[in-house]
Specification:
The protein has one domain: Protein Transport Mog1p, Chain A, CATH 3.40.1000. The longest helix has 18 residues. It has 183 residues and is of the alpha+beta class. The strands form two sheets. The chain has a seven-stranded antiparallel β-sheet, with helices on both faces. Strands 1-2 form a two-stranded antiparallel sheet. 27% of the residues lie in helices and 26% in strands.
Length: 183
């Protein structure tokens, strides 16, 4: 084997190792939602960034905006679970008025107010929770499990929450779930 052959083999192995060790996708979770949707109104690509790969719907209800029901979407992936929950203030476990809900969300020493371009108010708390209250509705986003290395889960859940505010707070129609994740 010549020195040239050895160099070519080593270059090929190096390229293979570098390509295989690219690491997690650290692209920011978009603040504007787009299809496909894993559950009604929940953008699949955003959740896949948060959990580090493909997701499966483990629990879902289709009741966005229902007066006496709760919308729930649990999505599981390689690094854990993302839950999106939307309900009326009256049905919320946080309190019976918008003020009560916001007081509870903001009561943790780890909570921080959100400054979003949307009607209402909200907070982040812990390292992977965000909530927003508007028009008598409460929407929360939680991430649980092992964080994807290099990702900021607080920013991730805040961006996911922001992307869903058009139908949670602005009266836009909730985009339906897409059966085919490539749609």
């Amino acid at each position: 084997m010549t020195r040239r052959h050895v160099s070519m083999i080593l270059a090929g192995l190096f390229a293979l190792v570098v390509t295989g060790c690219a690491g997690p996708d650290l692209t920011a979770v978009p603040t504007t939602a787009s299809a496909p949707y894993a559950c009604d109104g929940v953008p699949r690509a955003s959740v896949e960034l948060i959990v580090g790969g493909p997701v499966e719907v483990s629990n879902a209800t289709d009741d966005w905006g229902a007066e006496y029901d709760t919308f729930l979407c649990d999505l599981t992936g390689e690094h854990g679970l993302v839950t999106v929950d939307e309900t009326s203030v009256v049905q919320s476990p946080w309190g019976r008025t918008e003020e009560d809900v916001l007081a509870v969300m903001g009561s943790s020493s780890a909570s921080a107010p959100l400054d979003l371009d949307a009607p209402g108010s909200g907070f982040t708390w812990g390292d992977a929770s965000a909530g927003w209250v508007c028009d008598g509705r409460v929407i929360t986003v939680y991430a649980a499990g092992d964080p994807v290395p290099g990702r900021d889960r607080t920013a991730d859940v805040t961006h996911l929450l922001t992307s869903m505010l058009p139908w949670a707070c602005h009266g836009e129609d909730v985009p339906p779930a897409t059966d085919d994740p490539t749609d």
